[in-house]
Amino acid sequence: MFLDAIRKYTDKSNKSANRELLLNGNLIQAILMLAIPVVINSFLQTMYNLTDTYWLGRLGTEELAAINLVTPMQSIVVNFGSGLTVAGSVLISQYLGAKKDEDARSMANQIFACALLFSVVCAVLCAVFTPSIVTWLGAEGETWRHSKTYLQLVILDMPFLFTINMYAAINQAQGDTFRPMLLNFLGILLNMALDPLLMVALHMGAAGAALATVSAKAVPAVVAYVLLQDKRKDIYISLRGLRFEKSKLKSILTVGMPTAIGGSTMQFGFLLMSRNVFAYGTQAMAAYGIGNKINSLITLPTNGIGSAVATIVGQNVGARQYERAEQGYRLSRNISVVFLFVGGMILSRMPISTAIVRIFSEDAEVVGMAADFLSIMAFWCFANGVHNSTMGLFQGSGHTEVTMAIDAARLWIFRFASLYICETWFHMGVRSVWYCVVISNGLSAAVLYLIYRTGYWKKKRIRT
Question: Could you give the CA distance from residue 232 to residue 10 in angstroms, rounded to a whole number?
Fold first, then answer.
């Protein structure tokens, strides 16, 4: 029944209409068509973590701090592999814009095979080295035990996660973000049911949180794999007799490797940030995790718009329509900035931020720090509107070397430099972490905008 509901949207006439809209139709309609399902999809993805956070908050601060401590390690691996899914969406969309559907199909198969192999290898390696990683992060006692258990189990969802992500990338390249949203909706329903069952009813704690997440990804992954093999679609997966093509593998590395390096480097920076925050205690670590996860909900709309920009730019660059690609970017950027400015002004009010944080923790000290962190981030979150839409522009045009450089600079230069200044010069304590986040986000958005103004994104990078 669920498969039939998704297949309702798979006919080729819908895909042709989507391509026509992206290349020649109303841009606001195109942005909304792509962005709204992505926003809902991203919300559902975020709910995986928020559901864990809610139930762990009911169990205790140590369990909550343990998951927040090791989550960046999981994100390092996921973000490195996301270079493949970003490459898939960009390359497939540019082939489709150039009306080379056979090349788009071949590219989808090769990227899917690479992503699946990568996910299996990384899941095994990370599970083996988890004890050393948790020790290096500074965890001890019960926090060490909870962190080790959670990371070793949750990393096993990698093959499932990458199957779902490749499904989303292949469909997004064709202008379809609705079906991936439905698929993730299935996953979040499973996760919301399994979390209280495993964590509370069966008293499995952090292990229950991990197993709930893995199980909730496994079912949608199987559905995604079945749908990807549907030969009635323009783009489908058929790994039998797959032959890797040197030219396409080179394109995958050209576009995917910068994204992989940038994303994983940024996440490694987050890992070091977690280590710095943990030095202030488990309450600070819990507050940091809560603030970040709530902030991710605030910026969801602009994340969706950034993904829409990448698809619109990708297809229009493939069709050599640079003026329309830039028009789509500017419109998306302005919508993002206005939305985040208004929303940020509301959520930055301390009574509102405190009320939201109380949902996830009953510890008074955690609530106070998390509310302070959230109010500061919300006030300055409009910078994310510029950042996310401009990142989409460079990804869609294939210039992922720019996104790599910005991702690296945001953490390793802007964030750690501002953290050092706030801690050492101004002696701001844990608030140094809160302010270094917004300062680094603002600086990276400004640099991205300046690079856009040079017109560098129009330089041809991918041969289609």
Answer: 8
* Helix %, strand %, coil % of the chain (to 5): 85, 0, 15
Q: Please check whether residue 373 lies inside any domain of the structure.
A: yes
Cα–Cα distance between 174 and 380 in angstroms, integer? 34
Q: In which element (H, E) is residue 391 found?
A: helix 382-396
Distance CA 449, CA 386 (A): 7
Q: Are 116 and 242 in contact (CB under 8 A)?
A: no
Cβ neighbors of 161 (< 8 A, separation 6 or more) are 78, 119, 217, 221
AA letter at 294: I
Q: How far is CA 198 from CA 64, 81, 361, in A?
A: 16, 29, 20
Would 464 be classed as within a structural domain?
A: no
CA distance 375 to 350: 6
Number of independent structural domains in the chain? 1
Provide the 3-class DSSP secondary structure of residue 121: helix
Q: Which domain holds residue 117?
A: 2-235+244-458
Q: What is the pLDDT of residues 92-151, one digit of tens each?
A: 887 877 778 788 888 888 888 888 888 888 888 888 888 888 888 777 788 788 888 888
pTM over 0.85: no
Q: Is residue 463 part of a domain?
A: no
